[in-house]
Design goal:
The complex is a heterodimer of chains A (383) and B (415). By secondary structure, chain A is α/β, with parallel strands linked by helices. Chain A is built from 7 helices and 20 strands. In chain A, a hairpin with a 4-residue loop joins strand 10 and strand 11. Classes of the chains: A alpha/beta (383), B alpha/beta (415).
Chain lengths: 383, 415
């Protein structure tokens, strides 16, 4: 009897739960339908909302702005810069509006369509300025240049504060172009002919610089400088960011003086280096670190690692010789990373012949090992 | 042939168009993860999904391998980065004469450093895991469920967000309405069927045992329980009536002793049969007392059976079963007769006699067996028994007439 009572109670509870679930499903179903539970919206007169997008600087209407409502493409602004939105298409009332126009920073804003008749969006010109563009960002090697507003005087071991980048935007742009030609543009002349690089290798690169009149890097805040977070928020696609400062004053005589060039691995999409705009060979050397992951081959206070695959330093003479044999190089050219002059010796071996730019820094070329690595990396880009 | 070539060319153009028009899709998304090295371990600072383009995954190589995993932890893609704690600087060393003499190294090792990882987002991406390339140890695994949910909340109509399996937009109910409806209907059906089955189940028979000997009450209660009956004990006629008044459900049958004080079984029976609510309860007299002719005459039509103690267990069970079966049978005959249009009084009279004659026959049998004397000796008892027999005989005759009258409506087993 007691058992039967308990069973009846359980069955009743299950029945009630089932009933509640059915009611809940009805509520969920209705909520998904257009109009759902919403009452007639007391929306704007005529039931339309006009979105006007302007250039934030000069307030001119922007045409060709693509709008995405809640993530879905909704249309493009007309010649007068306006876009008409129909609230009836968005029964929830609250939407996310994303405005995208090439050359401008995209903007996303939330809007309650039941409470507005119009919306004004101001778009900021993008600080990402194209210099040489050869293809879509997602298929190219993207290099972005940043200006520094500091330099360094090694003679006095002091940071030199500058008024922005000396010469302003035009000077920076000129420096960038010259830098590209004197570094990336030098291949294949400074590469080993044993590993030919394709003639149109520059087509694998996109070059940009970032300029918004207010973002400067202190290239001498730490080894490689400090880039503001706002830059990384806007520039997400960089394979290498290069901080250019105008000039390094004086001669580096050792710590605690700041180095002329420095590479900060900093993760993926955030690798950067700093270098003086007028340094050619040291820049090529630093790009060897920053973009290609090459190791220094001089003996000193630096970082060594057998950088597989296609290393340019090895952790033993045997490994160096084995690599040499496998690549048809002379294994006898393997030598230890050392400087007998100052008693420096590292447990790493190198093969590339001198003058190796990863050894000398201020002159030299890339040997077989370094070239093989560089070409292998460039070949990963199909253009 | 020309048509085929032309169609092939058009097809080629169609296939080519998406490739050339690829450009940078406005729906391209990235996962931006901010990390920090602290005390030798990597911790997640923040992670989010945003529109944008990611860097190339396959340019860098280093001591840390990054894996992009789907929800089943299968590798979708991978990348490699160098140790972010180590910055390497370079300067040209100059001699006192101003000539360059090689490079001077500068290593900056920062054990507490923040760094970032930006990877392309695809709908199947769920985890980003980083592993020490040398040891294989997992350094960190970032679950993207939260960022995916946050992005879906902001951009619910993004084409990629709609196709993500299993991700639930924040603020929404995790169960789709179809599932809730199916589950609800299933629960209602199961519980309804269960409840219906429970209702249809034969209810256990409740048998009240009335006897002033507690040991007998307990014994009969135990025996009845074993048979699946629900015993209701009462140790006096008064208690029996009290239980009948207060019990929500009336018993299906009463086993009634006679020799009780102050209210004996017959008195109790009279009270039961006088109450309109109780009079239909079948009463079996279960007693050690032999019936008298006057008792048989007076109460024969009121009781269902007269069982003499001591009683065999099987005999008791059989008696109870027979009474209940007969009751059901007579009730079905009554329904059939009334349905056939016979008068209710006629049918009820038949029902009363149908049972009563049977009981009286049994009582008569007991009387004759108890009070047997030589045929030549007639006394008051035998004369009383003869009276009972005569009365029973006339009722039997009446019953036969009624059976004949009602035969078209009665079941074939009626006799």
């Amino acid at each position: 009897m007691q058992r039967e009572k308990i069973l009846r109670i359980i069955l009743l509870i299950l029945f009630c739960c089932g009933g509640l679930l059915v009611i809940l499903s009805a509520i969920l179903f209705l909520a998904e339908q257009p109009g759902g539970f919403t009452r007639e919206q007391s929306g704007p007169p005529g039931g339309k909302i006009v979105v006007e997008t302007r250039d934030i600087q000069n307030q001119t209407p922007l045409t060709g702005v693509n709008y995405y409502i809640n993530g879905q493409f909704a249309g493009t602004s007309s010649e007068n810069g306006s876009f008409v939105l129909s609230p009836a298409s968005y029964p929830s009332g609250t939407v996310t509006i994303r405005a995208v126009k090439e050359g401008y920073e995209e903007k996303t804003t939330g809007a309650d369509l039941t409470k507005m008749q119009s919306l004004e969006l101001d778009l900021q010109i993008s600080g990402i300025i194209p210099v040489l563009i050869n293809g879509p960002r997602d298929t190219e090697i993207n290099i972005v240049f940043l200006p520094s507003n500091t330099s360094f005087n090694s003679s006095t071991d002091t940071k030199v504060m500058l008024n922005g980048y000396p010469g302003g935007r035009q000077k920076f742009q000129d420096d960038v172009l010259r830098f590209i030609n004197r570094t990336f543009g030098m291949y294949p002349s400074n590469l080993s002919s044993d590993y030919p690089i394709s003639g149109n290798y520059m087509n694998k690169f996109n070059f940009y610089y970032f300029w918004d009149d207010e973002t400067y890097v202190d290239a001498f805040n730490g080894c490689a400088g400090k880039i503001p977070d706002s830059y990384w928020q806007k520039v997400t696609f960089s394979d290498l960011t290069i901080i250019l400062y105008p000039q390094y004053y004086g001669m580096y005589i050792g710590p605690p003086g700041a180095p002329e060039g420095c590479t900060n691995p900093n993760g993926l999409g955030r690798v950067y280096l700093k270098i003086a705009a007028d340094e050619q060979y040291l820049a090529i050397h630093e790009i060897g670190h920053g973009l290609y992951g090459l190791m220094d081959t001089y003996c000193g206070d630096t970082y060594y690692n057998e950088n597989d695959p296609n290393p340019n330093v090895w952790t033993s003479e045997e490994k160096c010789q084995a690599a040499a044999i496998a690549n048809n190089w002379n294994p006898g050219d393997c030598r230890q990373v050392q400087d007998t002059g100052n008693g420096c010796e590292k447990k790493f071996w190198r093969w590339d012949p001198d003058p190796d730019i990863m050894y000398e820094g201020y002159y030299g070329t890339f040997g077989n090992a370094s070239t093989k690595r560089i070409v292998n990396i460039l070949d990963r880009i199909s253009n | 042939m020309q048509l085929i070539l032309f169609a092939g060319f058009i097809l080629f153009l169609i296939l080519l168009t998406p490739a050339t028009a690829a450009g940078t899709s406005p729906y391209q998304k990235i996962v931006s993860i901010n990390l920090a090295y602290e005390n030798g371990a990597i911790k997640e600072v923040s992670s989010e999904i945003q529109y944008g383009t990611a860097p190339n995954l396959n340019l860098q190589s280093g001591s840390i391998t990054g894996l992009l995993l789907d929800s089943q932890k299968k590798t979708i893609d991978e990348f490699s980065i160098r140790d972010p704690r180590i910055q390497t600087g370079t300067s040209v060393q100059m001699s006192s004469g101003g000539a360059a003499q090689g490079l001077a190294g500068y290593t900056d090792y920062n054990p507490h450093v923040e760094f970032g990882v930006i990877v392309p987002f695809t709908p199947d991406l769920r985890y980003v895991t980083m592993v020490d390339s040398l040891t294989g140890n997992t350094l960190i695994s970032v679950d993207l469920a939260g960022p995916i949910s946050a992005f879906q909340t902001m951009y619910p109509d993004d084409p990629d967000m709609k196709s993500i399996p299993g991700a639930t937009p924040a603020g929404t109910f995790p169960v789709p309405w179809e599932m809730a409806a199916i589950l609800g209907i299933a629960l209602i059906a199961v519980s309804g069927a269960g409840y219906f089955a429970l209702l249809r189940r034969p209810k256990p028979i409740e048998v009240m045992v009335v006897d002033d000997e507690p040991a007998l009450v307990e014994l009969f209660s135990l025996l009845l329980s074993r048979k699946g009956y629900i015993p209701i004990p009462a140790q006096s006629g008064k208690e029996c009536l009290s239980i009948l008044e207060t019990h929500k459900k009336l018993p299906d049958l009463i086993l009634l002793d006679i020799m009780m004080y102050p209210m004996d079984g017959w008195q109790t029976l009279e009270r039961i049969k006088k109450n309109p609510s109780w009079k239909r309860i079948p009463v079996l007299m279960l007693t050690g007392k032999q019936p008298t002719p006057s008792e048989a005459k007076k109460y024969g039509l009121c009781i269902e059976d007269y069982i003499l103690k001591p009683v065999k267990l099987q005999e008791l069970y059989s008696a109870i079963e027979y009474v209940l079966t007969r009751k059901k049978f007579i009730e079905s005959e009554i329904r059939a007769a009334i349905k056939a249009g016979y008068e209710r009084d006629l049918v009820c009279e038949y029902a009363r006699l149908r049972k009563g004659v049977e009981v009286e026959k049994k009582l008569l049998g007991i009387l004759r067996s108890v009070y047997t004397t030589a045929e030549s000796v007639q006394n008051d008892v035998t004369r009383a028994i003869d009276d009972v027999s005569a009365e029973m005989g006339s009722r039997e005759e009446k019953l036969k007439k009624l059976q004949l009258q009602l035969s078209p409506a009665l079941s074939p087993k009626a006799h």
